[in-house]
Amino acid sequence: MSQIDKKNQEFVKTNSHQMNSSENNEFGYWKSLKNISSEEDYNRFLKQSDHNEDNGLSRRNFLSLIAASVALAGLEGCKKPVQKIIPYVEAEIGTIPGIPKYYASTIPWKNNALGVVIENHDERPVKVEGNDKHPATLGKSNAFSQASTIEMYDPDRARGVRHNGKKVDWSEYLKFAKDINKGDGKGLAVLMQESSSPTIKSIQNDFKKKFPSASWVSYESVNNENLYTGIEKAFSKKLQPVYRLENAQIIVSLGSDFLGVDDNNIYNTRKFAQNRDIVDENSTMNRLYVAESSITSTGSSADHRLNIPQHEMENILAELSFELRQLGLSVDANKVKSSNNLWIKAAAEDLMSNRGQSIILGGSQLSPEFHQLIALLNNQLNAPVDYYPLNLSQVSSLNDFQSLCDDIKNNKIKNLIILGANPVYDSPADFNFEDLLIKVPNSVHLTNILDETSKLCSWNIAMTHYFECWGDAMSYDGFASIVQPQIMPLFDSKSAIQVLTPMVYSKELSSYDTVKNVWKSDIIKSGNFERKWEKVLHDGLHDIPIIKKEKVKSSAKASTKQLNNTIKLDDNKFEIVFNASSSVYDGRFANNGWLQEIPKPVTSLTWDNAALVSLKVAKKFNIKNGQMIEIKVDNNSIKLPAWITPGQNQKSISLELGYGRTFEGRLGNGVGFNVYPLRMSNNPSYSLNASISVLDETYPLASTQDHHGLEEDKYAAPGFDKLANNEVQSRIPELVKQSTLDYYKENPDWVQKKVEEHKPDKKRSWAEHSMYNPEPEYDYSKGPQWGMSIDLTSCTSCNACSIACQSENNIPVVGKQQVMNGREMHWIRIDNYFAGDPDNPEMSTQSVACVHCELAPCETVCPVAATTHSSDGVNQMTYNRCLGTRYCANNCPYKVRKFNFYNYTRDLPEVVQMAMNPDVSIRFRGVMEKCTYCYQRVSAARISAENENREMQDGDFQVACQQSCPADAIKFGDINDPNSAVSKAKRRNRDYALLAHLGTAPRTTYLAKIRNQNPKLSSGST
Amino acid sequence: MSNKAIKSKAQIRAEKLLPGNQDFTSITNDIAGVPEQKKTPIQWWLLFGFALSLLAIFAGSVGFLIWEGTGIWGINNPIFWGWAIINFVWWVGIGHAGTLISAILHLFRQNWRNAINRFAETMTLFAVICALVFPGIHVGRIWVAYWFLPLPNQMGMWPNMRSPLIWDFFAVFTYFTVSLLFWYTGLIPDLATLRDRAKGFKKKVYGFFALGWRGGNRQWQHYELAYLVLAGISTPLVLSVHSVVSSDFATSVIPGWHTTIFPPYFVAGAIYSGFGMVMTLSIIARKVYNLGHIITVEHLDKMAQIMLLTGCMVGYAYSMEFFVAWYSGNPYESFAFVNRALGPYWWGYWAMIFCNVVVPQFFWFEKYRRHIPFLFITSILVNIGMWFERFVIVVITLHRDFMPGAWAMYNPTIWDVSIYLGTFGLFFTGFLLFLRFLPMVSIAEAKLVLPESNPHHGHDHE
């Protein structure tokens, strides 16, 4: 049963409210405690609410504002919404106070659509979950979508319309737009981000008809253009590949981070993990080969990782092609032989012996020729990849963007409409877009925040968040998905549809009508439209795809000739690789506190980017963590701190995009270092011939984990700097139990043996060896008993769980300084361990939250009994009893308890408070907190089961981390129910408890990590 | 028998402990003369001014702590306890010498204690006050710290009696109460002496606290008995308080804390540091007040011997911890100790070893036990060493426990330091007020070592 069906859901969301807050850039935000706003600031903010100039926006007033509901659906787009003010006590029929409502919607992510279900409390969206009916999310989500709530409630968002810096009325813009409408479109250009919206496409078609001489350009700084071009070269048509990884037994990734920062990462991870869900030693699993220059989430999940610089990737493909040719593929390839031959040979053999179930994936940063060859090879391998036409999507085109720039340069552009993009910040440095933009007489910037581009545009229009407007998007495989408003625009903002329609149709159309009309004419073509439309609003998508899978035919012969495999790098030069950030992407999430503070996979860095350098380079240049270095390519240079990263290629330096912004976002302004100045149009993925010089200064970087794994311990006693390193190495197999599939098949009980190894009395359980109360207070054999299982084999350390937890449980953002002090509050911590060769380590990750010990060391030591056990086996914190001795946290062997050292929520702006989940209390300073197993969800499910006079069933509810996990690695439920998913997981022979020998009897257990290593390759990576 | 006076054993002892032909009058005059001084010595004022400014720092820092929260300290995840707990254990440890000197040595009839017991007891009181500050202020929500107390309330919520922090709280409070009673009981005859010598208002105040002491035979009999009983009650406390404090650590699961050797090892360490502090203070006081003939080198020598003994005990404990860590075969335990000695805080560990194990070895030689500047420096080193011992136990243990993913480093802040220094203000302000208004050496007990106090004095039985 779908989770949407389960909830009381209405077809049409009718209840929204408007809360306009006028300009104010002063009231506080929680970047650091230094900025704690005074009460005066706070009151000033309250006064600035349009509706409540005198009284301030109290909670009561806020509730009545909510009740100011729009009478009919879809009216939010109207210029003058007809509003009826109804007191909350007479709320909309069917509203039960305290019971959240769930609405299906869509996050338009570039030219993809991520179907979500949004949890609304008191008519405000507070939590995003995956929509299990949606083909791109399959009920799961990722860190970016989880963080989108806090993005909407960002008090720094742009408000209203500005013309030449002055606040003007929307009608002024309408006048301007109608003037354009009167012309023939000469000198008119639209620049927008990637999109797959059928409505925007339809407007674009009309735009092109109306203004034949105008141009419409899509540009995105992180894009798949090379991939599409490569596929076009291979199959003579631009196509969107969708990797059906559930059918792939062998995956060879050449620089592709398909599980990490990828536009379809939820789908990819979900399907990839399906083949890693091993039930017992007889199960099969896929095998992943990854070649990359810097460890990504994908690389850390690899069974065999090859550490090669980006510029040698084409050599690797050439070599792979040759090996494939030897094994019978028809490809024109000459013999090339490198030191990586063993890895390549093994990969090639695996690919060939699994034809039909093997696939090669290429990094989007690589050349079109590279992708062309991969597409042709995949075609010959009969790889499980489907291709879909791209003609309904707007994908980024560098050529179009360049010709737009040329037009501007030649003063051909009079009116430039920029929809959402931020080209001043993220376009190639050699375009000097900043200088060009000034030359455009009329420039309109639709933006969610006043940014680098807004400053230079004559018109600034606040852009609605996708929670606030009607819209649509299409998944890669053609499912049109609806974007439904959850709330009236908070900040007097407009959607792209509202900005475009007066220009194209000479009158402003409501987004609702526009979208509905497009769906009526283009999408829902048969049957009763209204009924189907209502179903779309309910499900979030139309169940018949609007584009069909293409049957591809090679239009070229697979050949390595076009590959550029002669690149040579001078000995003292480096390549620099630009990667989209796992936190801020291309810069768009720079003002998102949750994303800024989430530790990045691998480096665990927060609040900054750094130049990732290898250990060898660091030694050679005497670089320490945080050392400022200057990177010079040709005549451009940037300065940024270095971070020594295991698994980083020694010829390669990785740079993360999206930082060093200068905009009106108080959280993200000036955070990190801008690397775009080095990024040129001729090679936006990586640059060669970079030279570095080490500067004599250091910069403090906030990392949540010290990597004792591989670094030397610089403070240790002289001569013992390897002490911690050796210790960690010896602990990794204990903490993250792991083996190869072959070993597992031979020793199916190895995990259990390992756990039992040192037990003094084999007849008694570990819990019976515990020094703590051997007779638990409650009878755990009765009633539902909650437990969790985390599968380390499928976890990719993507951070979705951690942000989902943050959103669900109101976990505060503490700022860089506090993170540096080791006080980050995330309830789920992702530990990264590196073993083996520092240049190509085997990386193990483990997400650790409170494991809910049945015999909890924290409980005995609390002097005031603030942490106790519930009868259903959950270790609970009573916040208002806690006095903060922190003894529980000291005595926690897992170190999962987090302490409110300061009052981290004191200066939360009112708007941000709206993002808080009302089911979970906000913790005050001096109070300990930790994972509660989302007890609010347990309670809600128990109450509704009681109301329905039935027992709770497995799947009645999901905890936040479990719900979001795209790998489905987290199972949660009743361990007394033998048929629950969690019981089944715990019965697997890979199940083990962390630090079992302490006798704490944890309720969260782990499933050992299995790597499907090729026996032909020696153990370890490569 | 020759005419040459043969000194009795008692006389020899008396000359050693109270040299220079002293009698009851001279002792009374010398000791009572200090609080009776008309003009407060300038040195006292200087010291008092200094102590008061430290006290002001203390008040300011604690105020800021309450205002802002424990975030002003260097504590973090996983080092949830920092200087506050180190200082608590340190001050409680110092507070041990007082009762040990007063009670146990009294029971063992070690009369040499009489010159220093008042001193030591007073030091104990103020040290325990300093210690008790920390459990109160180190909690996250200071305004509900009274929840430690078993107060009846409408929720029926009692403290969790399984928590060592509760044991700790009771142990230290009991110790404080008994020490206060013991100190006051010992003070009664001296207060009467001061009352008898004072005039006017002072006489009334001393008289009030002297509880009508007349020095009669029956009073002395009752007094002696009461004192003996209190000494008997205090004696187990000397052993229990720090044993209980050590259970804060010993009952946990954390490697490096979870050891059975902690109670005796903590008691030995506490006595060691307590004697160090008594030594420091008495060397200063005998210099400032010219009491070299009452607190003699002999006393200092005896204290040095105890420090040698307890120093060796803690040294033994340190080596035994390593042995057991190795012998247990528990890799977490082994690493915890190796990390102490060789990890990033190795300097803290070796500072502890130097001060607590190496330095007292000089006391095997009489020359060093009687070299006052050397003793002074040593006594301070001892307390530095004992502070580092607690640093080693609290910080080094916590910074690397089971999960390397949660390992971290610890950096104290200015507020950690200022509150620690501030407790010295609290301590010295109290102690200087004591020196100014009360006899720093027990007048009655100091006289006990004089031959005249022997009931058989003057009666030759030979």
How would you characterize this protein structure?
The complex is a heterodimer of chains A (1022) and B (462). Chain A is built from 32 helices and 40 strands. With 1022 residues, chain A is of the alpha/beta class. The longest helix of chain A is centred in the N-terminal third of the chain and has 14 residues. With 462 residues, chain B is mainly alpha-helical. Chain B has one domain: Formate dehydrogenase/DMSO reductase fold (Up-down Bundle). Chain B is built from 17 helices and no strands. Chains A and B meet through helix 22, strand 31, helix 27, helix 28 and strand 35 of A and helix 7 and helix 12 of B.
The poorly predicted ranges of chain A are 1-57, 59-87
Could you state the order of secondary-structure elements of chain B as H and E?
A: HHHHHHHHHHHHHHHHH
Measured as a percent range, the helix fraction of chain A is: 25-40%
CATH class of one domain in chain A: Alpha Beta
Gap from first CA to last CA of chain B: 10 Å
CATH topology of one domain in chain A: Alpha-Beta Plaits
Class derived from helix and strand content of chain A: alpha/beta
- CATH-defined topology of chain B: Formate dehydrogenase/DMSO reductase fold
Write a concise keyword list for the protein shown above:
heterodimer, A: 1022 residues, alpha/beta, Dimethylsulfoxide Reductase, domain 2, Barwin-like endoglucanases, seven-stranded mixed beta sheet, six-stranded mixed beta sheet, globular, B: 462 residues, mainly alpha, Formate dehydrogenase/DMSO reductase fold, 17 helices, 69% helix
